[in-house]
Amino acid sequence: MADFRFEIIAKDMNCRARAGVIKTRHGEIETPYLVPVATSASVRGMDCDALERIGVQCVLANTYHLHFQPGDKLIGKFGGLHKFMSWRKPIFTDSGGFQAFSLGLGALHGTKKIGFIPQNKEVKEEKKEEELLAKVSDKGVEFRSAYDGAISFLTPKDSMEIQSNLGADIIMAFDECTSQRSKKEYVKKSVERTHRWAIESLKYHDKKQALYGIIQGGFFKDLREESTKFIMKQGFDGIAIGGALGETKKDMKDVLSWIMGILQDDARPRHMLGIGWVDDLFECVENGLDTFDCVHMTRLARHGGLYVASGEGNMKNKFKIEINKAKYSEDKKPIDSTCDCPTCKKYSRAYLHHLYKAKEISYYTLATTHNVYFMLSLAKKIRGAIIKGNFKELKKEWIGV
Amino acid sequence: MADFRFEIIAKDMNCRARAGVIKTRHGEIETPYLVPVATSASVRGMDCDALERIGVQCVLANTYHLHFQPGDKLIGKFGGLHKFMSWRKPIFTDSGGFQAFSLGLGALHGTKKIGFIPQNKEVKEEKKEEELLAKVSDKGVEFRSAYDGAISFLTPKDSMEIQSNLGADIIMAFDECTSQRSKKEYVKKSVERTHRWAIESLKYHDKKQALYGIIQGGFFKDLREESTKFIMKQGFDGIAIGGALGETKKDMKDVLSWIMGILQDDARPRHMLGIGWVDDLFECVENGLDTFDCVHMTRLARHGGLYVASGEGNMKNKFKIEINKAKYSEDKKPIDSTCDCPTCKKYSRAYLHHLYKAKEISYYTLATTHNVYFMLSLAKKIRGAIIKGNFKELKKEWIGV
Q1: Using an 8 Å Cβ cutoff, are A82 and A24 in contact?
Q2: ipTM (interface predicted TM)
Q3: Can you give the residue range of the structural domain that contains B367?
Q4: Rounded to a whole number, what is the distance in Å from the CA of B57 to chain A's nearest CA?
Q5: pTM of the model
Q6: Do B84 and A350 touch (CB under 8 A)?
Q7: B91-124 pLDDT tens trace
């Protein structure tokens, strides 16, 4: 049995928001929590010491990437990811299902993203079927390595073995994501496949690891409900929500309401895959989600987007300033005057503007440190508000509704 | 008057090596010291907190780069580099003279380097005269900005004004470097020009800053001696050695012996510009140099060269391992088992090999941290050996002679 427990310590009276603690053999995660993504066993822009200094409680690493480079078997020889990357706290791994999407169907449909997708904006160059780096069949996914072209066929069993080698505390069932542009007929078949894979994942997974089942079904109410009911009744340690969530933020709320209408009394921890904007965090917490992972906060930092709190930050500017703008070149203020992160305690916007322009490596570390600290502080504030019973007020203060 | 003092606390009986302390208004530098280079007001790969954590005592920033980006006037508005980059300890700035070389004569002669240059190896693509980004005349240097093409004419007076705006503790006189391929006739004229500029630098420099004069003269004994005598008799706070040092390590030793034969009893601190390999450090210390600056240790780290101590490290492998090599992919050892740096205390070669291959930003910070810590520890060991009277033994242990 996995050394894994989830305790709910407070629930909001007016919505599904809840505060809790996930307990693993590598320590605790206080929820709601936004998990920084360490794709290749490293959060882009921060080493593990840097993560520890700002109190990061857990990270999420990627099965697909680590399987190909440096190889999960190699990591297994080290005794798993914790030892390989010298990270003592809890680790999540995804299952590779997302890359089956982003390198397969997503590429075919011209989008690498899932989750909430404004359809008119996100359609990029479409790939042809023969160019795809991932091909899904009932048996599993044939991946062509983006690193060296090597072919690797992953079944649910393989994904579980890889995740066992990686040795994370919390792992994900192997699933298929569908695209926002997938037809209902395809999504229906895909959900059935994901459910068969869920059963196989349960069968083959390393029982020392906590396994989350993933709810799919795209933007189809009946399929989302069917998937929720199916995943819920299996013996998973936690429940994750994956896949396409419609075209607007309103659509995402609808998907969550379909799922949560069924899932609401389930006591297991709930993880939302690939969500991480400020307003998404509030919406998902309001709908009863406990943890989230997203490359957004770290990627945004690398591209010059730095978070600012409610007040200067708002829904219109997405709670960020663009540090490349000339107006910051002489700005002596910290990025965010309410922030206690190591970057804001020491450096000015002008200096960060300069480092960004000069493409200094220190820009990436300082900016990433700020964005991660900022979002984790926000998650902490949200948690505190749930415990105190004023989550709705905090949400209103930040996103206006 | 500059708040600046140099105390020699120990001298070696058998050579010119000496241990000392440079005292500035921003703190002390224990010599011999290898100064990390913060070209654009940041050491590549480390933020100022990271430098402080490993006890770095000072950095050297570049006048040319900061003049063009973000501009010395802007930095002046912040009260100087210390405040702009949030660095409390001593700062050196160079004068822009090196870039007058690397963008001018160096480019014309197909080399961007000065110092010790194996002539057969370093000749790269030669630029034509009209393509040069720096043109030297008696009055000064016309720079075309590598950033945006803007023209800026720098005289010694301008260099002093820029360095005053930057506000470093220790600044350099404006000088002209010559190339290893410069003819004696040119070098002779250039030395005379450098001497006139030295006088002007002394006249115009900010008297709160300690000013070092620079000895030039290429690989010509009489010119080096003439330059040493001239610079020595001016009222500089310290003496620096610049320019071409011949083609072999033996040549470099010759240049140092010509200079030190004259300079040996001078009590001012001596700085060697652009030197930073392990064996160079020993040679230069043995010849009575106190401080050094070089991008080598940080650049090497970024390209996968990681320092290892005497034993595994030797003259043949230049005291480094190349972390990209496949043999390190499963190596559980730290980079250097004798090193106490934050990287060696926590991470394996295998993990660094992986991060390097994955081009993770954390590779650059962890690798740079190691190399800087390693070289500063070596400087500290050298200092300790001079104080204890066993410098020669330490040198023999490391470089065999």
Answers
A1: no
A2: 0.95
A3: 304-377
A4: 18
A5: 0.95
A6: yes
A7: 999 998 788 777 777 777 776 555 555 555 555 5
